[in-house]
Amino acid sequence: MGIGKKIMTWARIKSPWILHFNSGSCNGCDIEIVAALTPRFDVERFGVIIRGTPRHADVLVCSGPVTRQIRDRLKRIYDQMPSPKFVVAVGTCACTGGVFDGCYNVLGGIDSVIPVSAYIPGCPVNPEAIIDGVVKLVGSLEEGKSA
Amino acid sequence: MAQILFHIFIFPGILFLLVMSFLIEFIDRKLHARLQNRVGPPWFQPLADFIKLLGKEVVITDEADVTIFRVMPLVALTAAVTAFFYIPLWGTEAIYSFNGDLIVVLYLLTLPTLSFFLGGWYSRSVYSAIGATRALTQLFAYEVPLLLSVLASALLAGTWSLSELTRFYDAHPGWWLFNLVGFVVALIALLGKLEKVPFDIPEAETEIVAGYLTEYSGSLYAFIRLALNVEMIVGSALLAAVFFPWGLSCGPLAGFAFFILKLLVIMALITLLRSALARLRIDQMIQFCWKYVSTLAFAQVIATLIFKGVFVK
Ligand code: SF4
Q: Could you report the predicted ipTM of this complex, rounded to two decimals?
């Protein structure tokens, strides 16, 4: 890695801005994601800020299985994000479809529509697990595995 | 020539303002976090954000006007940096000064808002359009009180030049106390100018995504953030120069230290207000600014005129 690339990787690791997207979750995981953003967990320590617009975000945090209704929107939000971008699937449903797998209106996990970089299982996920997942994703960036 | 280039690029130009803006953003965010009982970001956070944004893809929508969309962040940054040259930093003399530079500084500080409006408007997103019109509506509410309060201080000194104004207050110690009401008005107006809570209506992220910034990404967004930070520094520096013009004649080093101290105090006040208050609606903001803040500013101007008429001959 050249020095320029090293600095860039360092900057990316230190400032993952996230966008939260509910792709059909039962809302359990959403509450936990919001809980992870409260002052108690203080994710700004790691440079994490939640943004309102996909244009500013680096990490798309998805919760819930992908429903047929939401598929196009999810794809569109993903396309609107400027690269490099990453997707984190939060919750068992987001990983595999979970308890909703096989429903007539459910396509499956997030990775049935867009590429996913990190899976965080749990029903619902702990805020600690979410933070751990994002930190692990960022750590894998450092080793140059996904980029 | 070399000196001019040094002024523009190193001190007190782009490089100094870049470092200052990172520092100021860090202090702002850290203090905000501490007020919320959080640990807050590490010291290099603004730098990391800036570098990361520079390395991101710049998305420009098909419908956007590419030239305006690309140029406006730089116009805003240039205007804010230029305004800084007219503000006395370490002595009673700014690097460049002429009679009327106070008006020029205020004008240059208006330019970022206008360029953000244009950039947001021509990105052709609905959210950007709403944010942009709100930014312009807000401009009409805070610009008048800001001008009036600065005018009151300038009236007392009887000059339109920032350097002469500081010289006047240096020769008449204690007179700056007379403008304290004006300072409160200017601080409120500055909150509106910088779009800080409670006046962050143009970029209210819980209602209109990110206002006029919605479509900006990558390096363009990085420059907008930088422009906003520089605007914050220049705005605070202007307030420091106009309302706290003391301690400037005790040598460049002590003067500069005093300047930084005043800047930090004003910044801390802004952060305190933004942590303690919640966002107003646009109509509430306009009402508040015209009904109370402008009235206060007028009262300050009239008091200054009477004071000048009676005591200063
Ligand atoms: S993982 Fe559990 S809590 Fe999360 S969306 Fe699925 S069912 Fe709800």
A: 0.81
